[in-house]
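Reviewer 2 asked us to include a model.

Predict the structure of this chain.
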Amino acid sequence: MANIWITGANGQLGSTLREKRFSPLDETFFTDVEVDITDPKAVNSFMARHEIDTVINCAAYTAVDRAEEEAEAAARINRDGAASVARACREQGALLIHLSTDYVFDGDGSAPYAEKARANPLTVYGRTKREGEIAIKGSGCLYLILRTAWLFSGHGNNFLKTILRLAGERDELRVVNDQVGCPTYAGDLADAILALLAADDLPEHEGIFHYVNDGACTWYDFAREIVALSGVACTVLPVTTGEYPAPARRPSYSVLDTAKIRATFGLEIPGWQDALRRCLGQMKR
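Predicted model (structure tokens):
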């Protein structure tokens, strides 16, 4: 039996985890802004009161472009919040499962990034998430850091929902075709987390793991597949990053290698196209 605390429970992954069936022996607690993870006293009090032994930290500042002008706000959640939760986990003997990002890499590579690849974030968002990783590793708590990428679902704001909305409003969309990554269905990531929680030897595998759906594509490829599967009459055209300037510089290649998590926990990871079909089907229900 475990008492599990999910932070950031109103975000994409947190909302998806709400829909999942945890073990009937576990008690789950979902919080968002009602518990400020940057407040050590609030974190310790909540964990002690509910005898938490596992924390899934989904809380994050994820507005990549806005973070360039709100660096302090991003650091407060992504770095300081992660550090606060990690310290509380150490003090109370709890396991921390923390979500991180492919944006800790600069994208200058041409082969999938393994967990030991050198981090070199290009953005405030990526830098503060990396600082959160470092704080967790240095805290002395028992932890698993799960890096993921290009998350999509029927919850919150994400690329999938944006493309569906714009395709319904316009005859033509222009989407970046020179950034390569791995679209990841929040439903599959949530299932992977549940599989990890069910592993008897989970505490023996402390460290960083990558989880993304199988396969890689560009944002343009992703958008074309979304439009095709949704049946909307909209033309998707490729553009370069230079033609679509943004405040934050995205990595041009941020494909994550998932060999470690597959081998360690025996996970089978679906392809992103299959995941997209299932997500769209779920959204239509």
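The chain is about 40% helix and 15% strand. The mean pLDDT is 96. We have added this to the supplementary material.
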